[in-house]
């Protein structure tokens, strides 16, 4: 059909771009194959189109953040979550040691400080750490429509080098934003980031957001409509960190990136899009992923501020 041919063509067009670097602060990510690239469109009525490396597994990393935020909102309620994690774009890097003056509240759930706090809010504070991880992995699996697992090697590699996230978690504990052992929360958050996905999985996860929280293939409702609106809004304003403004103007699709090279976008009522390519720009966003989304947006008029 036409769509895979189009995707093949766009992948071919960006293949000459070899700029960017693999993430190496997590040593296990530095052994990824840099040339891999794939792109998938998943419509809200369950059609899936892809080209390139769409069944290669890689770790979800920060793309887990909007989905864990959705689970936290569903489990703990809006008031409880908003009291601990804000919704203001920080304009800072994903790993900035950035907490609101006075309260210690992280500015949003897409930066690490907010995502570590969000992880602790899954299960409404009722689950011990390992059961909370199970709830997160099962929740991500429901978004994807198949059972997902944790990559133990990537997880151990990140945990061995997690000093910065541990420092952030200790700050959160000192402000009372976290009220439990900071190391246990970071351990759970790192497991969440180490969930293995493919571009096809990510497109289905994004399509579930685009489809009001109902997985288009399984028909399962994963989270409430109101939760999806909140999550997509935060993705639109904060999903690309300190490149969020460039992205909003150039691409104009609610999105989230991860340092293993994944990138998702969700267009409400239409499609979920996912790309995979491991080399990253200075913001930690996939170089070819950003280039692919720029093409998709302009070729198909997907910018949400444009009249279709
Ligand atoms: N696990 C990574 C971290 O906490 C996720 C970062 C990312 O994908 N931007 O540093």
UniProtKB/TrEMBL annotation:
Residues where substrate binds: 62, 112, 158, 165, 189, 241, 259
Lineage: Bacteria, Bacillati, Actinomycetota, Actinomycetes, Micrococcales
Catalyzed reactions per annotation: L-glutamine + H2O = L-glutamate + NH4(+)
Keyword Acetylation appears in the UniProt entry: yes
Coiled coil residues, start to end: none
GO biological process, one term: L-glutamine catabolic process
Protein's name in the database: Glutaminase
Top-rank taxon: Bacteria
First-to-last residue of the parent protein present: 3 to 310 of 443
């Amino acid at each position: 059909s036409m769509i895979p041919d189009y995707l093949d063509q766009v992948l071919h067009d960006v293949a000459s771009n070899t700029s960017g670097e693999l993430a190496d602060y997590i040593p296990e990510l530095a052994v990824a194959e840099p040339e891999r690239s794939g792109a998938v469109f998943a419509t809200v009525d369950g059609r899936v189109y892809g080209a390139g490396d769409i069944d290669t597994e890689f770790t979800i990393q920060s793309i887990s953040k909007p989905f864990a935020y959705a689970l936290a909102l569903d489990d703990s309620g809006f008031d409880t979550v908003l009291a601990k994690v804000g919704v203001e774009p920080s304009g800072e890097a994903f790993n900035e040691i950035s907490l609101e003056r006075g309260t210690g509240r992280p500015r949003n759930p897409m930066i690490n400080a907010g995502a570590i706090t969000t992880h602790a809010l899954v299960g409404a504070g009722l689950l011990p750490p390992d059961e909370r991880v199970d709830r997160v992995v099962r929740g991500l699996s429901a978004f994807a429509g198949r059972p997902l697992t944790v990559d133990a090697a990537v997880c151990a590699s990140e945990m061995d080098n997690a000093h910065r996230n541990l420092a952030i978690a200790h700050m959160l504990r000192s402000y009372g934003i976290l009220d439990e052992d900071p190391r246990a929360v970071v351990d759970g958050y790192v497991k969440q980031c180490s969930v293995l996905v493919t571009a096809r999985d990510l497109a289905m996860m994004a399509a579930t957001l685009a489809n009001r929280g109902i997985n288009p293939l399984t028909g399962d409702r994963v989270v409430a409509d109101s939760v999806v609106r909140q999550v997509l809004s935060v993705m639109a304003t904060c999903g690309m960190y300190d490149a969020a403004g460039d992205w909003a103007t150039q691409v104009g699709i609610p999105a989230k990136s991860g340092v293993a090279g994944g990138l998702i976008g969700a267009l409400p009522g239409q499609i979920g899009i996912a790309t995979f390519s491991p080399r990253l720009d200075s913001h930690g966003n996939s170089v070819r992923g950003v280039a692919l989304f720029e093409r998709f947006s302009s070729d198909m008029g997907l910018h949400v501020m444009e009249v279709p």
